[in-house]
Design a protein that fits this description.
six-stranded antiparallel beta sheet; 15 helices; single chain; alpha+beta; Helix Hairpins; Heat Shock Protein 90
Length: 653
Amino acid sequence: MLGYFSKVFAKSIQISTTLYATLKLMYKHLDIKLVNLHLFKNTAIPLSKTNFTMLIAIAAVAILLSVFSYQYYAFTSAKISDIASHEVKTNAQIQVHDLSQILSNKFESISALLQTLADSPAIHNNEYNRASIVINTRQQYSNQLTDFYMWLDKNGKMNWLSNINQSAYQKYKGTDLSYRPYFSVPRDTHAAYYSSLIESNDKIPRLYISYPVINMTGKGSPGIFTGVVVASIRSITLGNVLQHQLIPQFNSTVGLLDRKGTVLYSSTPSFIGNDVFGKDIQSMLSSLLPSESIDSLNNLLRSSLQGSTGSGDISAQGKTSTISYEPVSINGKYFLTLYISAPHNLASDVGLLINQQKNFSTIIVIVIAAVAFGIAFLVFLWNKRLKVTVDKRTAELKTANEQLKIHDKMQKEFINIASHEIKTPTQALLGYSELLQRHPEKIEEISQAIFRNANRLQRLTNDILDVTRIESQTLKLRKEQFDLADLISSIVEDFKNDIQKKGSNIKLLYEPKDHLILEADKGRLTQVISNLLSNAIKFSKKNGGKISIATTMQNSNDDDKKVFVSIKDDGTGIDPAIMPRLFTKFATKSEAGGTGLGLFISKSIIEAHGGRIWAENNNSDGAEAGGATFYFMLPLLPTTITKISSPTTHNFV
């Protein structure tokens, strides 16, 4: 860079020196009286030799600065354009990586649901009513992506189809689908099948994932094939889910190809279902792109279908786009390839500003002799404006990049935590199941352990579903009027029974004073209070611990009454490192266990009711007692607070 500017400076000096020498030679040999010089004959300003020399010097310096400034702008502009293009490329690569991981996780989740269906006793025993409920429930877990679930018998005839009313079911019941590969392949291989695009009977292109239903007849036996369970995914739904994950300001688009080059999704609907190298698509591309760009695009696509990760730039009609690609795998097997096309809009915007600046600099050079001193001021002004614009765009790109990094980090944390939490009860279930086979006489004890671990797994699943509903803003409240004091009493009673079963001596203290009538979702508030009590018990002293639950009313006026609920324990308190992010996702420490989702869900539920939740350590005000206190506030219905005539202390041990 220093050598470049040295050449520019030397060239500017040479131009200025030549101009100065030419004017000086004219003055010396022609002996022109400056006052009568034709150039100034109509002015009344006498120009001395000194003034003329000064004018030449100013003009030379002005030209020197102008040429140097122009060359500097050209160099800076090229660098700015390169930086903007690099940022677009980097963000496209980050986006395609994140989306490929998201898509892979969604497919694996659907596969796991199908596996549970294939192993379901209701399906193995042909319990149609019970099986239909199980299938509908599984489909609801993945309805953001899946269209429907099917159950086909061993002959390929339909037993059940989710998301369908009874009259329509009677119409399609028994339909023969044995010719479909999502039936024939699992039947022949006894393995899961992941299809490419298949046009269904309703002319809608779909992807299918199917699992065989195998009845095991004994150890070492290959089992008997009794049918398949199938999940259907609309191509357009899959594309829309991915498109909504993209950052809007980059104007990126998404595409999907299977391993053979068939278009599974494209922003151009007519491409879907066609071979990307086929005549139809290639003909359409030839009308939009020059032959060099088509060759580059085809080479990029061929490379991507080898299961590799990469990116490339495609230019057409003066515009450049970066295409990044990454394979999507299911359970370690390459399934399809995801593409992100990111136009260089940011680079084009910066380039437009750069070209305007260059043109304006050229005009300045032409009129530099008349506005020599003004030029310096304008140059600094324009440079500052350009810097502000570039800094703003760079800041936007950095912000978007940081958001993608945070999203990727949170996703990895969630996968690690969820994997650990799921693995623990799953391994326990497998272990107890094996133990039950060896010791059937211990069925009662082992059944309780299996039930306990299954409940743990169900709670984790419900927490994950609640977080999904909260983040997608689909958490629904089923409000009803009820007495909060009665609800707390019943929850405390349940926890008392659980504590007694475990042989613990932790005390739960609650004294209801008023009838507190709320209009709220009773089930969700039960979830919040139970979660706070579970945390309090977990962190309380194991021997002689005490947990106090209290309610307090704030009567500002009859139409604005609030109830405050506090749950106080005498345990270890809240770690200062956790406190600032206590109610965010994954706010937990490894030794404490858990996914760190409970308080995040509780906060969302309370705020959805128009309330507020917070926590503090008990010794924060100088008190000697340890532990922590959690509070939440909820609005009450007007004129619904009444005293309980004979207050009873629920001192649960």
